[in-house]
């Protein structure tokens, strides 16, 4: 008795009340150049009330297909993707959003993108981001629904793929680095779960998607951040493309949800790049992009590497508070690697954006180090008598002074800036 070969790849498709979009997508999987016994499909349903289950069942004789469903408790894309992935038996996972269409070589191209050495010449896993034609929710490609009704996806891409308004929404930013994600400071910003793949073992090693994300936006970026921190290279495959088919979206609701979730990423990873992300995306500030702002921070970090601000911190900390008392709880934003010498009994929290400076700090009683810019910190409101902002933050001041001052005032009643006229009190 012969047994079917083990599948090479599992396609996980999260869905919710999009049965007919799902049907066309599954039909696309029946015409893959990869033999049907070499891949499996798991439809992961977030509690649909339409005929999704019937559509899935209709493909049981055409595809190796499984079905995972969960109760409709609101938007839980992270949880439903994880549930679908748990049914996978293949060593490679491909995640697709419902309605993403593709050509016959789609799965073969994802598999090919995982073959051979990684960009640095080493061997091992990688996270492959596939290209996405036609995905621009706020400026949809004119007439795309009508075009798709008459043509196969590969014919549409062949006819319109060179048009700027049809290209991947990430195209211009990626083009600036030659589509080499390794040249980006924050490559995880381009991790969109609508078309991506990675080894199942690596997906499990990072813990899958974070199920605390229970509304639209951010869960795939947060996943990408953890994958990047895990050491998995991020690479782009323009050959493993999808074409996003038009469908209704709650654009205003999605925008509001994405804003709300922006600080959730920071709560999960309270470090400088996520401070920038939260400060920008909570206000719908996308231009210039995070890559630009984070790049500016890293450039300033190098320029300020040798800047010793101990003397200015000591001077401002020694001045009496407005009520005449001496400060007993001091926070220094932009502290660098040289802790100020403060009187015995004074607690001091040293905050700096350069982890190298904090790692170089000598051990000292009453001193706490915190890796942050100071746009938002984990410090409690009112936890300091005095917050000192040093000249190590001068290079970020024009762009971020408002956020820095707001956070400083939240932490302490008195704020002093070392590089303003006069005393620097605010």
Key terms for this structure?
426 residues; glycosyltransferase; Rossmann fold; Spore Coat Polysaccharide Biosynthesis Protein SpsA, Chain A; eight-stranded mixed beta sheet; disordered C terminus; 15 helices; five-stranded parallel beta sheet; transferase; alpha/beta
Question: Can you describe what's shown?
Answer:
The chain has 15 helices and 13 strands. With 426 residues, the chain is an alpha/beta fold. The chain has 2 domains: 9-252, Spore Coat Polysaccharide Biosynthesis Protein SpsA, Chain A, CATH 3.90.550.10; 310-417, 3-Layer(aba) Sandwich (Rossmann fold), CATH 3.40.50. The strands form 2 sheets. It has an 8-stranded mixed beta sheet with strand order 3-2-1-4-7-6-8-5. Strands 11-10-9-12-13 form a 5-stranded parallel beta sheet, with helices on both faces. Helix 10 (251-268) runs antiparallel to helix 11. The chain is elongated and about 80 Å long. Keywords: Glycosyltransferase, Transferase.
β-sheet strand percentage: 15-25%
Computed CA radius of gyration, to the nearest angstrom: 25 Å
Strand order of the largest sheet: 3-2-1-4-7-6-8-5
User: Could you say which overall geometry the principal axes of the C-alpha atoms support?
Assistant: elongated
Look up the CATH topology of the largest domain: Spore Coat Polysaccharide Biosynthesis Protein SpsA, Chain A
**Average predicted confidence as pLDDT:** 94
**Helix content range:** 25-40%
Helix/strand structural class: alpha/beta
Largest sheet: 8 strands, mixed
Report the CATH C-level class of the largest domain.
Alpha Beta
Distance between the termini: 81 Å
Question: Do you know the CATH architecture of the largest domain?
Answer: Alpha-Beta Complex
> Could you give me the name of the CATH homologous superfamily of the largest domain?
Spore Coat Polysaccharide Biosynthesis Protein SpsA, Chain A
| Total count of strands | 13
Order of helices and strands: EHEHEHEEHEHHHEHHEHHHHEEHEEHE
Q: Give the count of structural domains.
A: 2
């Amino acid at each position: 008795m012969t047994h079917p070969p083990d599948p090479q790849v599992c396609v996980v498709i999260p869905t919710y009340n999009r049965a007919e979009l799902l049907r066309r997508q599954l039909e696309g999987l029946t015409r893959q150049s990869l033999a049907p016994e070499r891949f499996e499909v798991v439809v992961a349903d977030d509690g649909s009330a339409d005929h999704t289950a019937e559509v899935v069942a209709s493909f049981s004789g055409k595809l190796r297909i499984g079905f995972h469903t969960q109760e409709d408790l609101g938007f839980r894309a992270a949880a439903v993707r994880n549930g679908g992935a748990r049914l996978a038996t293949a060593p490679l996972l491909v995640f697709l959003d419902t309605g993403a269409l593709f050509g016959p070589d789609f799965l073969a191209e994802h598999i090919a993108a995982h073959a051979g050495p990684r960009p640095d010449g080493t061997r091992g896993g990688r996270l492959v981001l596939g290209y996405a034609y036609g995905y621009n929710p706020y400026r949809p490609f004119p007439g795309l629904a009508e075009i798709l009704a008459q043509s196969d996806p590969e014919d549409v891409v062949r006819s319109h793929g060179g048009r700027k308004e049809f290209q991947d929404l990430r195209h211009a930013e990626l083009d600036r680095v030659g589509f080499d994600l390794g040249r980006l400071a924050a490559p995880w910003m381009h991790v969109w779960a609508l078309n991506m793949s990675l080894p199942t073992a690596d997906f499990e090693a990072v813990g899958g998607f974070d199920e605390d994300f229970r509304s639209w936006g951010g869960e795939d970026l947060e996943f990408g951040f953890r994958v990047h921190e895990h050491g998995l290279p991020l690479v782009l495959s323009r050959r493993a493309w999808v074409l996003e088919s038009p469908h209704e979206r709650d654009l205003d609701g999605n925008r509001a949800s994405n804003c709300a979730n922006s600080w959730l990423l920071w709560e999960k990873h309270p470090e400088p790049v996520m401070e920038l992300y939260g400060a920008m995306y909570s206000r719908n500030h996308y231009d210039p992009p995070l890559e630009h702002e984070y790049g500016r921070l890293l450039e300033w970090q190098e320029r300020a590497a040798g800047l010793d601000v101990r003397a200015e911190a000591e001077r401002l900390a020694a001045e009496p508070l407005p009520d005449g008392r001496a400060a007993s709880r001091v926070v220094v934003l932009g502290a660098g690697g040289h802790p100020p010498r403060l009187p015995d009994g004074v607690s001091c929290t040293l905050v700096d954006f350069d982890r190298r400076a904090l790692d170089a700090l000598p051990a000292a009683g009453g001193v706490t180090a915190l890796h942050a810019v100071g746009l938002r910190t984990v410090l409690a409101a009112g936890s300091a008598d005095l917050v000192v902002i040093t000249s190590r933050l001068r290079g970020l001041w024009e762009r971020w002074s408002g956020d820095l001052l707001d956070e400083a005032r939240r932490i302490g009643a008195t704020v002093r800036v070392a590089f303003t006229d006069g005393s620097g009190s605010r």
